[in-house]
User: Fold this.
Amino acid sequence: MPTESTSPSIEVRGLNMVYNQGKSNESKSLTDINLKIYPREYVIIFGPSGCGKSTLLYALAGFQKPTSGEVIVDGQDINQFDKKEKVEFHRRKIGMVFQSFFLIPTLKIMDNICLPKLFVGEGASEREKRGKEVLQRFGIIEHAEKFPAELSGGQKQRVAIARALMNNPDIIIADEPVGNLDSKASFNVMSILRELNEMDKKTIILVTHDPAHLSFGNKIVYMSDGKIVKTEEVIERKKAVLEGEEETTIKKEMLSPEIQMLMRSFQNFSPSQLGMLLFPFKAQEFLSHILFSVPEEQIDVARNKLQEVLSGRVTVDQFEKLLDQEEKKGGLNWDRRIVNKIIKRLKDILEISKKMDNTKPEDTALIIAKYIINILKLQFTEDQIVHLSQLARLRIENKLSIIDLKKNLDRPLSERGMGLDKRTANKIAREIEILMLAKFAM
Ligand code: ADP
Ligand code: MG
Assistant:
């Protein structure tokens, strides 16, 4: 996160962009844009089509000279660069990803991604080595010898990201990178960008008109009609949620503020959109749910791997190996009994979430109720099972908030509640939330 002492890696000052200036068809695309982007930020530029997002992005990347104003990158005005400096800047500093991929159809995937390196003037073997690394990383190594037309949209975009990373730039700029992809592929690409920000510490600047992507960023720049109308730091959003939250017990015991925030907006999203929003948080939730106290760095490693399990890039078995194997083999070498417990729990959750079916809420609710009764070893009567599954149904259909679910579980029988103690009510509510996360994440 930027601090007072960090200087911005990109600063835009008083930027204006006018097309066809002085002509009858003159149009102002950007008006007095001022913006600071700090190292390692994930900035999302959000706004309706035609509001000037792409124009701003290309001005930031130095592809389009502004009518007036400055773009300062690492202290240098990029529009004052001579030709050579500009070329160098594009090669080394910024990686670009576009909605329509821009792969060269007549080149194989490996050659496509080696192109930027070619221009930098490295030897062929170096290039191939780096190429293999990035393809491997994004799960597309087996397509190295294919042509772009043989790949799906999601695979092509992963190739394009791999290409953007070849020269290891600090900044990745992406213009509607998932605009042409289905929800599963979008999810995958958005996750990769998130990972590049979190793990590789890249500065990401992403343009989107889709509100479902907003939670990926830590700074949201809202644009309308060529102007920045609002800038939102996500730290502030989190704080606002915490301050507005009266039920402190829920805040601590139940869910992270991020998830609370997302759950609150639940109705507005389709399950696949929600899954995409929840993705970065759910791995953490899962892990803290099934884990005891382990050093923080190890949790980070495990969480990242778990994230890949949940996105389908890594199998449960591979995850188990990571936890179980000796450190010299790259594992975490956790106690076998703990690993067994974690893996069993993870498999249970994944299995139940697979059985959950939006079109059959009644059956799904009953499956959930039985699972929870089993996992928490509750002694329930037939009536209680029915009651619990009714509440579960209301929750999964989002007719009941998490707070109201807990109240219903806790409230005395005489007031038509389930009359459970607070602890059990909390545990049950938490199990339901985890299953919902798992379900919507898939
Ligand atoms: P967005 O990416 O938000 O959809 P753009 O940055 O592509 O918006 O476009 C912003 C505005 O600038 C639009 O009104 C568009 O018509 C106009 N515009 C973009 N490129 C040009 C151009 N080369 N010539 C004239 N007008 C343009
Ligand atoms: Mg655009």
The pocket of adenosine-5'-diphosphate (ligand 1) is lined by residues 19, 27, 29, 47, 49-55 (CB under 6 Å). Residues 277-354 form one domain. The chain is about 50% helix and 15% strand.
